[in-house]
C-alpha cells in the first residue's frame, strides 16, 4: 500500500496547480482504500509480483475518487470522511472538472500497463458505473422501488469497481478464465455486501464515526434496503410517513423513521442480505491457493459483517 501511495502522489502531478490541490484534498482524507487493497490481496494470493499491480491499484483508487467528486456534486453533499466535501470547499465546477482529470489520468496509466484486456475491463467498469449513477438518479424519490432494483443499482454503481479490482490481478498473472471469474465473483459479492452495510449504517451509526451526515440518503430520496424492508414491515401510519419522506426528501421525522427501521427489524433483514453476499465471497475465494493473502481475503469478507464505520 505504501508503494501504491507513492504512485498516487507521483501521478497527481499537474501543470495546473488547482488540479493537484483538489485531488490531494480528497485523496488525503484517507478512506478505506478497499479497492487497491483488494487488488493487492488477490495479486498476493496468485503469486503476482509485477509492479504493474501498484499502477493498477492506483488506477482503481483514481477512478473511485473521481466518482466521489462527481457524486458529492450530484447529491449536494457537504460532509465526507469527517470533513467538508471538495465541492463545498472548491465549488461544484472545480470538483467536476478535477474528477474528469482523475478519470483521464487513470486511463493514461492503464496504457502504461500495455494490456488490452486490462483496458477493456476498466473501460467496461467505468461505463457500468456511470450507468448505475444514472439509474440511481432515475430511481430517486421512488417509494415503490423493490430489492431487485436496489441490487441492480449497487451492483453497477459500487460493486462493479470491486469486481474489476479483483479481476485485474488474475489478468496480470496470466491465470485461466475460471480463476479470473472466481476472483471477479468474489469482488462483486464483497462490493455488494459493503454497500448494503453502508446503507445500514446510515440509520444505525453516529455521524462523527461515519464521517458523513446521517439521513443523507433519505434527504436525497434514495430507497436503500433498510427503507425497503421498513416499508414492508411497518404499520400503515409508518409506511405513509416513510413514503412521504422518500417522495419529498423530507427528513423532518428522521429520528422517528430511524426508530421504525430499527423496531421493525429492517436493519436485521438488510444485514442478513449482506451476510449472504459475504458468504458467497468466502465460498468462491476458498478455491484460490491457500496462503496468507487468501486468508486475508477471507478475513476481509468476514470483517464486513461487523463493520461500524
Automatic annotation (TrEMBL):
Its EC number is 2.5.1.-. It holds the Pfam family polyprenyl_synt. The lineage of its organism: Bacteria, Pseudomonadati, Pseudomonadota, Betaproteobacteria, Burkholderiales. It is an enzyme of class 2 (transferase). The keyword NAD does not apply. GO terms for molecular function: transferase activity. Its cofactor is Mg(2+). The keyword Transferase applies. It comes from Hydrogenophaga atypica. Keywords: Magnesium, Metal-binding, Transferase. This is Polyprenyl synthetase family protein. Coiled coil: none annotated. InterPro entries: Isoprenoid_synthase_dom_sf, Polyprenyl_synt, Polyprenyl_synt_CS.
